[in-house]
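Q: Structure tokens for this one, please.
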Amino acid sequence: MGWAIGGGVLLAIAVALVAIYNRLVTLWQRIKNAWAQIEVQLKRRYDLIPNLVSTVKGYAAHEKETFEQVTEARNRAISAKNIEEQAGAESTLTGALRQLFALAENYPELKANTNFMQLQEELTNTESKIAFSRPFYNDTALKFNTAIQRFPTVMVAGIFGFYQEVYFNLDDEAEARRAVRVEFQVKR
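A: Here is the predicted structure, written as tokens:
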């Protein structure tokens, strides 16, 4: 009789461990999926930027520094190796793109260019998708991070190597919301 009770307890513990492990795997896979959705939109963003820069260059060729900043920020974002680097790079890229669009405000013929307008619209749509995907990723990471800190899941998480996931946040959200100041120098 004692063996049966002991076996039943061990079976219950094993079933609980399997259930906890499976829940953690499910949450972790959701995080990977949420990040993949962000990466798809980021790739689209990176693909649009060279065309946008090229279009603006045709109208404002003397604004070389702005184009270099956008290109450098794009390259840094593409080469980011983890979520923290990606967040910092995306903040920089967003600022550089704001400068590029502010630059375009001073060229009425550029603002009327259909190619520019189309690229700007596509980039705006992509930015909206990134803005939607980021909180989804962070909410999923929050659920996972909370789950692995709760008892008894915390013991199972440690055994199987589940660790905190990083949130995808802008480096400085106040900076990202600040208006871009663009100054032009007249070349004579």
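A few notes: Residues 16 and 152 are 10 Å apart (CA to CA). Confidence is low (pLDDT under 50) at residues 173-188.
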